[in-house]
Design brief:
Helix content: 40-55%
Distance between the termini: 19 Å
Number of helices: 7
Structural class: alpha+beta
Radius of gyration: 18 Å
Order of helices and strands: HHHHHEEEHH
Strand content: 5-15%
Largest sheet: 3 strands, antiparallel
Length: about 200
């Protein structure tokens, strides 16, 4: 099994300013790197426990695998969710299936943002706000997860926001959402080809 690595950001650390502070560097290079390191260590310990057929040790490692694996998965999605506000990627898409799904399921992009922010502000402590595609119901939904818990099937992540529960953060981050990436995730999810 190959080791997980910290993904490179697809933009400069200060590219999201003034909406997201360049201190995101700390979050990327310190926090996300910590999840990667701890996930690699937990997977190594799990593999050793499997080879020894030590079921108790395998069970004991589940929390570390979920927390650090979720932290790595969620943050890897999160970095791709963002794009400089001046880029074409940060402009909401019009006329396509993604826009139609937003209008069908939320009425408008503004309503989606409002409902998303309200649900996300309800998280106590650490967590994530998600716009997901429910592959069973065939519709977009808003959900939240605690800590570093990842989104799991039948839900497929389209947009994920790491919660820094401040209304100004939630309002600001919509200026740097990578709608091109979200549309691509939506297309893959609705076609049943998503690998997320």
């Amino acid at each position: 099994m190959s080791a997980h690595t910290l993904p490179e950001l697809p933009y400069a650390y200060d590219a999201l300013e003034p909406f997201i502070n360049k201190e995101i560097t700390l979050h990327h290079t310190k926090h996300h790197q910590t999840y990667v390191n701890a996930l690699n260590a937990a997977e190594k310990q799990f593999s050793e426990a499997q080879s020894k057929q030590d079921v108790k040790a395998q069970i004991a490692l589940q929390g570390a695998l979920k927390f650090n694996g979720g932290g790595h998965i969620n943050h890897s999605l999160f970095w791709k969710n963002l794009a400089p506000a001046s880029s074409d990627s940060a402009k909401p898409r019009t006329g396509g299936a993604f826009q139609q799904a937003i209008e069908r399921d939320f009425g408008s992009l503004d309503n989606l943002k409002s409902e998303f922010n309200a649900a996300t502000l309800g998280i106590q402590g650490s967590g994530w706000g998600w716009l997901v595609f429910n592959s069973k119901a065939k519709k977009l939904e808003i959900t939240t997860t605690a800590n570093q818990d990842p989104v799991t099937p039948p839900l497929v992540p389209i947009i994920g926001i790491d919660i820094n529960v401040k209304p100004d953060y939630l309002n600001a981050i919509w200026n740097v959402i990578n709608f091109e990436e979200a549309e691509n995730r939506f297309k893959a999810a609705s076609a049943g080809t998503s690998k997320l």
